[in-house]
Amino acid sequence: MILILKNGATDDQIDHVIQKVESMGFQTHLSRGTFRTIIGMIGDESLTTEQQLQSIPGVHQVIPVLPPYKLASREAHPESSVIDVSGVKIGGGNLAMIAGPCSVEDRDRMMRIGESVVKSGANLFRGGAYKPRTSPYAFQGLGEAGLKILREVGDAFGVPVVTEITDPRNVELVAEYSDMLQVGARNMQNFVLLTEVGKSERPVLLKRGMAATIQDLLMSAEYVLSQGNPNVVLCERGIKSFDPSTRNLYDVAAVPVVQGLTHLPIIVDPSHATGRPDLIPPCALAGLAAGADGVHIEVHDCPEEAKSDGAQALLPEQYNEIVEKMAAMAELLGKTISPLPNSTTNNTPPTEALA
Amino acid sequence: MILILKNGATDDQIDHVIQKVESMGFQTHLSRGTFRTIIGMIGDESLTTEQQLQSIPGVHQVIPVLPPYKLASREAHPESSVIDVSGVKIGGGNLAMIAGPCSVEDRDRMMRIGESVVKSGANLFRGGAYKPRTSPYAFQGLGEAGLKILREVGDAFGVPVVTEITDPRNVELVAEYSDMLQVGARNMQNFVLLTEVGKSERPVLLKRGMAATIQDLLMSAEYVLSQGNPNVVLCERGIKSFDPSTRNLYDVAAVPVVQGLTHLPIIVDPSHATGRPDLIPPCALAGLAAGADGVHIEVHDCPEEAKSDGAQALLPEQYNEIVEKMAAMAELLGKTISPLPNSTTNNTPPTEALA
Amino acid sequence: MILILKNGATDDQIDHVIQKVESMGFQTHLSRGTFRTIIGMIGDESLTTEQQLQSIPGVHQVIPVLPPYKLASREAHPESSVIDVSGVKIGGGNLAMIAGPCSVEDRDRMMRIGESVVKSGANLFRGGAYKPRTSPYAFQGLGEAGLKILREVGDAFGVPVVTEITDPRNVELVAEYSDMLQVGARNMQNFVLLTEVGKSERPVLLKRGMAATIQDLLMSAEYVLSQGNPNVVLCERGIKSFDPSTRNLYDVAAVPVVQGLTHLPIIVDPSHATGRPDLIPPCALAGLAAGADGVHIEVHDCPEEAKSDGAQALLPEQYNEIVEKMAAMAELLGKTISPLPNSTTNNTPPTEALA
Amino acid sequence: MILILKNGATDDQIDHVIQKVESMGFQTHLSRGTFRTIIGMIGDESLTTEQQLQSIPGVHQVIPVLPPYKLASREAHPESSVIDVSGVKIGGGNLAMIAGPCSVEDRDRMMRIGESVVKSGANLFRGGAYKPRTSPYAFQGLGEAGLKILREVGDAFGVPVVTEITDPRNVELVAEYSDMLQVGARNMQNFVLLTEVGKSERPVLLKRGMAATIQDLLMSAEYVLSQGNPNVVLCERGIKSFDPSTRNLYDVAAVPVVQGLTHLPIIVDPSHATGRPDLIPPCALAGLAAGADGVHIEVHDCPEEAKSDGAQALLPEQYNEIVEKMAAMAELLGKTISPLPNSTTNNTPPTEALA
């Protein structure tokens, strides 16, 4: 870290800062400028925090020089990680195509949507059994019954499934039925939940919070990694901003920013980022063009009957169309849509399921 | 709700919208303008959601006319609620003065700070035993040992205590030791946690999330209320913005906005809102002047030794000074700093503790 | 417009609202719901404003149903406009490739950079002669001398030039030397300047302000259009947000949002949006993938010597590489990089200039 | 400035950075840490810019240690400035009470409102003759005719007047009729306009832009100061944020932040900050409590007839009430509402005008 002292810091204050910092186990390097005194701290930055240093009288500004996320940082792990979700690879040129309805609803509808999106080229099927809803009066998900339906769809079409986890008490249950655990935007800094999913062996899809800086996102990934679970896929899904045109502000530049800082893959979710079906196709393509390792899109066959978030879902035929365009884009970019685990050719679901 | 149809919505679409809405149990009222067709929906708005209506083909915009928070709304409960925290009243002209360190640390320090802030006029003592920290490597709190120290301080000085709850599995434990449960900003939309604290009998201090609109905050309060716990105090503690001058953006106008919409009290937390000790006093006074029902301030007797957030704490003598000013402001505004439960005169802590 | 009255609006208030609105020349349509009374206004919305209606006692909310930008709206002009900048077409599948340094600097450097970017495929050369700088002590541009150099580069390589206008007194002068007038982000709501460029015959490149909603941007375009100048190209260049990773927040979803609302073309500027050269290539591709009608990129051959904004410029060889990728992307999307006016084949500048 | 070099910066890069920086006229101070090399620059920071330094290969981060606003900084001028507006003092404990309608409208109404607000205690009368309106179709102000009315009101009641300047060509004209020139939020970075008002002798009321950091605001003040006009009063009037509850986000903490950084006074404008009359009184008091040097409030006697912004104005009787409260608050804070220039007692307008 580097400490910039206040203009007019006294010699006593300077001595106290040096003594304090050395007592923490750092070597110091003093530099008196015309206007400001600067103290370089040489040693293990994890021995203290910016805030603690900021509290020492005379300190004006604390400048960290190393990222506080150690396991997640690209400096620690220069090669891009490839996460394997029950046979589907994400990262390192392998694209995740995650699709499905917002909530798990009745079995027949789920089978229908599942079949359709897999046929179109999705390689991960999604659906929420536990829904974090803004209103206590809104549909909260089918719970375990929903997990069973989700698993059934996954098995029928040979596609791994991902679903949201909202309760630290449910991690084992959800992990039993699904291939990947999603931590939603509203829980991105639910550190109790992050710690629990970090103890699971399931890969984790970690969505960026609406007020989260990229560093916040990487710190939350670090929670999971530090518990021993190295399989984290990040997801940009829009942050808060002032323009009501879209539900959130789709931060597509976060994709290359994140890829510069971490070895973990990052996908985009234009459904939640924009909240508008007409914007999903252009924003999905933009995400891929920016380098995303996959695209998450909500699909529903009758949005007006959806139990949640129907307004931001594509119809199955619209999804089919955008996957074709994404496949062409992937080819241009030299990337591959990951094949389903048991398929012999790319993107072709098991024929028995589609018959 | 009011539905504004798309420019050029067809007669078939209009018929379909009407039929769909009536099938939900609403009466409809059709109005064809020069440019737009509008459908008024008459009935119980909780039968549907904006998103579902938005999904119906031909619908351009959905305009709710009633707030979605029913129990929290002032329309439902015109009189301001006064929340009683083990004898200390908050709301309706009674001011909460919450003070204490960010984290519970060693017993002696806690007793010292507790004695000091109570002597200065605090009527609720705070300290975190479970800390939601951005970094998995930072101090995470003393856990149950911290709760015991907190309780000891509360008992010694006759002051109720408030502490943060971060894990739905800990609600009973935390409720046993403390008088009020704090739900922090990062958990404001942790609906699992809100539901659990809603089942508790302890009053809840609900902090506004960094990306939460005021409606989001009220919806989170509604989660607690809808579980049967009517004792919610809201807290404005800063939202995300673009200026790095302060840690967050202190939204002081939220105080009167919230008071217009709900009967629940709202306090302000200039420590977290600004992250700078020099800004706490002016922002505390500004909060009271805007009508806040109390002020939450972090106090530590040696910020550079604080286990967390020392940089945003006042020293005990600074806290004493600002309480004097807040007392004068309260008088000007015709409000009262709530006395401690057993004190015969306002703001005088039990003499045995201070002796 | 639609007026939603306050809960509990009295009959007298309702009568007054109706009378007031009818006196403005509207017909009204009254609808009393269970909870709210709604008044539909039928007539020419330009006769009043939201704010005026909001001021009438009893009115709770005013909902406009038509966009306030009449000339810019796609409803008024369903077909996408193609803007011609001295022979280079922008919009309707024709892509602008705007490149050049932030500021016009010395003639030799400008000729070198101009030759290079035109050779790479740029079809509009940019450079600022009047620089709006945050600091009064920073380089403010070469003024008319800079305009002359810019013109010389344009003439030498047969490429139209665009430069920023900051002073309403300079419109004629700048228009004499350049093919397109840029209104910068900080002047997007400088209505005096907008009015003056609206009187010019030069096409206008209008950049989105850092706090501008998309509606604000379209209203500013309307200023120019309403003065008689129909040739406006919009530009997304990043808005303010809370994450310090990038200089601004690149709102790529604004591209399809804008294209849905207006017939005017919209390009993207990843240089200003991100402020980081490493992010320019992925964000340029993302912009095209989202449907942008062109890309604006700063290019400098020695960023550390640039008089302004060197840190966000690409080197000429980096620009050459990204144009190749953008050309491949354009082909995939079925679009064309507009050829230079006098070139017989696409993207090949006059051979005499390059010899 | 301090330069933090990139992890893995080569010796050649380090040498080049040092040579480059020394060629600019700085001394350097090299410090090699375990992970990062740091170069301290000793000398006059105005010789270069952050951006230029950022462009040097190998540089990771540039950290300025001195504020870039030299004349505006409190380091340069430790004592708070008191600005004199034709006899009304602002700053150093003297409070400005600015009131009046958004736009100058007909003479009789202006005289009526002017008389009323002066009687209530206003010491500066405001009204816009040139209105920067988002829509080209909205009322744009009466121009010079409006200036004349404004002057007439000022003369009638012995109160200085302030009005907005939007066009650099109008500075002399506006300065002839008014006592103070307002630069509005949308023009805060209209550097051409700032330069022109900097050449005027009239005090300037500089409003913070909706996307302006506090440093941006101070840099804009520096433009005016650097032209020779030392009389700048700053104004916080709300910045952009995500919550639609209020028109802008009232950043009350900006008041003490600004006062720590500059000697210039800062007032607050709760009318524009919130856009809601019900929020003006609590936010006005909050601004004073936070230490503001004055309060700007829009007042109109018939908001529904106002030519602009009626919805955010107080009625004269509401203004009278809030001034009483502000006067009590001022007394508590040990400040004085500046008397009118010719009044013998505080806040009493010339009796002939009120008779």
Automatic annotation (TrEMBL), chains A, B, C, D:
Keyword list, A-Z: Transferase
Quote the EC number. Answer: 2.5.1.54
Q: What class of enzyme is it?
A: transferase
Tell me the SUPFAM superfamilies matching this sequence. Aldolase (SSF51569)
Domain of life where this protein originates: Bacteria
Instruction: Quote one Gene Ontology molecular function term.
Output: 3-deoxy-7-phosphoheptulonate synthase activity
* A biological-process GO annotation: aromatic amino acid family biosynthetic process
All residue ranges annotated as the DAHP synthetase I/KDSA domain in the record:
87-331
| A Pfam match | DAHP_snth_FXD
Give start and end of each DAHP synthase ferredoxin-like domain. 1-66
Cited NCBIfam families = DAHP_synth_Bsub (TIGR01361), PRK08673.1 (NF006421), PRK12595.1 (NF009239)
**Name of the protein described by the UniProt record:** 2-keto-3-deoxy-D-arabino-heptulosonate-7-phosphate synthase I beta
